Amino acid sequence: MDKLVSKSEYILREVSSRFENPAVLWSTGKDSTCMLSLIRNVFGEVPFPVVHLDTGRKFPEIYEFRDKLSKEWGLNLMVSRNSDAGDVSPEKSHFECCSALKTEALKNVLREHGFDALIMSIRRDEHYMRNLERFFSPRDREFRWHIVRPKEPQEVGDAPFESLQNPELWDLYQTDFGEKCSHVRVHPILHWTELDVWRYTKESNLPVNSLYFSKDGKRFRSLGCMPCTTPIESGASSIDEIISELETTRIPERSGRTQDKEREETMRKLRSLGYM
Amino acid sequence: MFPFSYIDPGTGSVIAGSLWGVIGAILTAIGAFLMAWFIRPLRRLLSRAWKAAMGSGRFGIFFIIAVAIIIMASVIINYQNTEGFEMGKKVIVLGIDAMDPKVVERMMEEGKLPNLKKLTNSGGYSRLGTTTPPETPVAWSAAATGSNPGGYGIFDFIARDPATYLPGLSLVEQGSVATGTQYASGMKGIPFWKITSDAGIPTSVIKWPVTFPAEKVNGRMLSGLGTVDIRGLLNSYSFYTEDDTKQGPMDAGRIVHVSPRGGRVDTVLYGPRIQKGSEVVDAEVPMTVILGDNPAIQIQGSSYPIGKDGWSPWIRVAFSTGFLRNVYGIFRAYLLSSTPEFGMYVTSVQIDPENQLYRITYPEGYGKELAGEIGLFYTMGQPEDTKAVNEGRISREVFLEQFWQIEGEREKIFWNEFSRFRSGVLAFGFDSGDRMQHIFWETNTPKEIEDYYIQKDGFIGELLGRIDGNTSLIIFSDHGFNAFNRSVCINAWLVENGYMTLTRPPTGDDPGTLFRYVDWNRTEAYSLGFASIFINLKGREGQGIVEPGDKEHLIDEIIEGLSKLSDPETNRKPILKLYRGGEIYSGDFSADAPDIVIGFDEGYRMSWENAVGGSRQAILADNNEEWKGDHLVDPSIVPAVLFANFNITKENPDLTDIAPTVLNLLGLEVPQTMGGKGLVS
Predict the structure, then answer these.
(1) How close, in Å, is residue A142 to chain B by CA atoms?
(2) Helix-strand-coil percent breakdown of chain A, rounded to 5?
(3) Neighbour tally for B43: CB within 10 Å
(4) Cα–Cα distance for residue pair B343/B326, rounded to 1 Å
(5) A254 touches chain B (CB under 8 A)
(6) How far is residue B554's CA from residue B535's CA, in Å, rounded to a whole number?
């Protein structure tokens, strides 16, 4: 745990020394709340603006928790909403909805304030795509993340593409990515696991959104928008119980979030069978 | 089911590639290092030996003899590998999906099928027992493995994940591993082609259902039913129109609204879904339709004239999937009308056999070779677009044209393979007739269906004329056919009788598919697929409530209740027979079997809502779809057919006898796991 924390703190110090205008994203979830706590440990306070992307479809508990902690910790909170999103909803198209409400809102806030680094709380164990992330990861103007580029294979067995990401060896981090880069995503807890987050939350005695605790046999493992997040079966009603549950479970953390996407895709497949 | 399985083809392979790139680079470096050390002296040694040999006449002869010995030894070793297989012995297994014995027997009687009649007289004909339930993937897999569904794990078109209750197609398994989307055949168990391949016998398996992705055989394979299109679906046709046609919520096809201007339509062709930034979008390429006297489709710098019959030729297209690579596909279009209103049907964009997104041929080069010899061809598992007919986009006539295109291509593929068939086994599937009968079935066989049987009889006649005395020929179908007049929703019955509780009632617009509104804490049994009922069993189902000790009693109760179900419209019982999965299935995969299997009576079929875990108000309703015939009834109603050019001595043969017969004919031992017996004792 100490090792994990000291690596994260090192990265946070790098951010404050190498970037002019960094900001931290805070969903009020367990991971980004941990992040704020880490930042407070390093700097004594949270010296960066704290951005909350509000889709307008979050759980009421999230707003409550946000406003309470924001006051307590004296955060410089910026709430960003995409007011031009119009009539999107996940029932129509999950992708359009997420894109309009989250991605566009993020683009807006970046355009407005010109942040050059965004501190985010993603972890490698969440999803295999996140395994490819670096601690410092540049994004272009369209917010695209370039992992590889195609190339002509030079010899038999050669891959038809090459990696665009440089390795991050020991504590040497590339933070300057040239002109094409609109901002750098920084992931100080990329190397943590879900269990690490809960252990840190317990050790540091951090406040936790009540949605994470079991109610009527169900609790949330990951918090998103109301229409697209479903709770898991669980009786864990304290941090200790969550930790012991995680030590034995094999269900992916974001299972509640992805269920609807899965349903949409499952129906698409079933529909394509002639007998339907 | 995996979180990011919706990201299409391609996205994942880049990761695989980059990993392999790294591993490859390391291995290459090591290899180069070793080569530098060892190869040079070796080469020097060989060239010296060669020079010495050539230098004297004796050495030359010695060398030639040595090479001859090596060749002979390898031939002998190979020959021994084939376990008593006689070179030159040939077995052709020809499956004709849904060839119905009622139709065949009547038409033979009327003299309309002279070649099959001749085969009956010189060899043998019999009705063939089909599987329970008589569904295509279940039945063909029984023929391939010689075992009951418990031996290969396909019990219905639809299977469920017991943990989540989510239904899925049993034709292919899709998973998302660290390397992205991956497919695996839904059929477990050991098919006869694996046994013959392992024995070193030449083996080709072409268009046999449930063979996607293509497996390694000692010959060639072309994947059949289950093969996806480049969107990873079984069907995703498009319909381009300028009217305000709306897309139905259950439609497989996509409606693309266009507006013709100046004698042309500028639009796009949709391809695989790709990740773009943080979003997932459909890849697209611009496409222009030129209207007027010489209509044509212009795409990626080429122009393809649309024929007088309205059909375009095969068109090849490359979608850039962003940062990784191109995905290649092929499609055809049919121009319905250009005036007064524009309408165009575009088939699913299918896997290009020459640039395969997923492996549809073994070896991969076979796809290229075949396309080179017969031209491009429909590669998806079920290209006969029953969906487009059922959803009202193309007429039955256009569907029939497409059906004959596919049948024609299929025969070309057959003859291509037959022309080089010298030894071993050639297994081949014709399955378009099944889809055609689904649309055209009537009690009094219509001309369209008779034409098909007559055409196939002609094909068999030609084949009989071309095979030699060393060839055994088996022709079989997987099931017969019957009318689909009334649909049955078993979940509605379970709700009505208190075995299932819903949190809100189903409506026509929202049947609550994927068990969306099922209250599992108050549900004892659920139905999905076309014949399956499962008990919500504690310890097996994700939210099971029925104690294992109460299971058998509950099954009895449901069977008793369902057998009393009566249709007030017809005064008939919709269900002929109910089976206990535990009794009729055995084998390694029988634990996945449904607890109850329904055998519907003639004319009845499961409703589509039920198939996908939904429900509706009425248990029974009329079938008003274009999908008029079906075979998802009790196996006793839709037996299959079996023809052979040898005498069939086994009584009451069934599908599981096909694989053991193939092995017998080739002199191989039949594994004990095969429940079936040889057709000749």
Answers:
(1) 7
(2) 40, 15, 45
(3) 10
(4) 29
(5) yes
(6) 8
Q: Closest by alpha carbon to B631, among B110, B226, B97?
A: B97
Partner residue opposite B20 with nearest CB, options A159, A163, A258: A159
- Report whether B545 contacts B524 (CB < 8 A): yes
Distance (Å) from the C-alpha of residue B278 to the closest C-alpha of chain A?
A: 7
| A 57-116 residues with CB < 8 A to B | 95, 98-99, 102-103
Please indicate if any CB of chain B lies within 8 Å of the CB of A235: no
Q: Which pair of structure tokens corresponds to residue A47?
A: 């010296």
8-state DSSP, A45: S
For CA atoms B149, B152, B156, B159, the dihedral sign is positive
- CB contact (8 A) between residue B158 and residue A270: yes
Question: Do A63 and A88 touch, CB atoms closer than 8 A?
Answer: no
State the burial class of residue B69 (Cβ atoms within 10 Å of its Cβ: 0-12, 13-18, 19+).
exposed
Tell me the pLDDT tens digit for each residue of B310-326: 999 999 999 988 666 78
Please indicate whether, in this complex, the C-beta atoms of A161 and B18 are within 8 angstroms of each other.
yes
Q: Could you give the CA distance from residue B355 to residue B9 in angstroms, rounded to a whole number?
A: 13
**What does CATH list as the number for A2-194+262-272?**
3.40.50.620
Per-residue b/e over B656-678, b at no fewer than 16 CB within 10 Å?
Answer: bbbbbbbbbbbebebeeebbbbb
Give pLDDT, residue A268: 84
Of residues A263, A255, A261, the one with CA closest to residue A94: A261
Nearest to A270 among B169, B323, B382 (CB): B169
Pick B323's closest partner by Cβ from A146, A155, A252.
A146
| Crossing angle of helices B114-122 and B447-466, rounded to 10° | 50
Whether ipTM exceeds 0.95 = no
Q: Are B513 and B609 in contact (CB under 8 A)?
A: yes
Q: What's the distance, CA B380 to chain centroid?
A: 8
What sign does the CA torsion over B454, B459, B465, B469 have? negative
Report the pLDDT value the prediction gives residue B51, as an integer from 0 to 100.
Answer: 63
From the number of C-beta atoms within 10 Å of its C-beta (0-12, 13-18, 19+), residue B568 rates as exposed
Going from the first residue of chain B to its last (681 residues), give the mean pLDDT of each consecutive group of 10, the final group possibly shorter. 36 42 68 64 63 57 75 62 70 98 98 97 96 98 98 97 93 72 91 97 98 97 97 95 86 93 95 76 93 95 96 96 81 91 96 96 97 98 96 96 98 98 97 97 94 98 96 98 97 98 90 93 97 97 96 98 97 98 96 97 97 96 94 98 96 97 96 93 75
Report the C-alpha gap between B312 and B331 in whole angstroms.
9
Q: How far is A140 from chain B (nearest CA, A)?
A: 10
pLDDT tens figures, B187-219: 999 999 999 999 999 999 999 999 999 999 999
Residue A29, classed as helix, strand or coil, is coil
The values of phi and psi at residue B533, to 5°, are -125, 135
The per-residue pLDDT for B677 is: 94
For chain A, the maximum distance between any two Cα atoms, rounded to a whole number of angstroms, is: 64
Residue ranges per structural domain of chain A: 2-194+262-272, 209-258
Both tokens assigned to B457: 């009889």
The whole-number pLDDT of residue A256 equals 59
Looking at the complex, report in whole angstroms how far the Cα of residue A17 sits from the nearest Cα belonging to chain B. Answer: 28
pLDDT of residue A276: 75
Per DSSP, chain B holds a count of helices (H) and strands (E) of 16, 31
Would you call A199 an interface residue with chain B, using a CB distance cutoff of 8 Å? no
* A263 touching B (Cβ < 8 Å): yes
Sheet holding A22-25, edge to edge: A77-80, A50-53, A22-25, A117-119, A181-186, A136-140
pLDDT at residue B470, rounded to an integer: 95
- CB-CB under 8 Å, A266 with B233: no
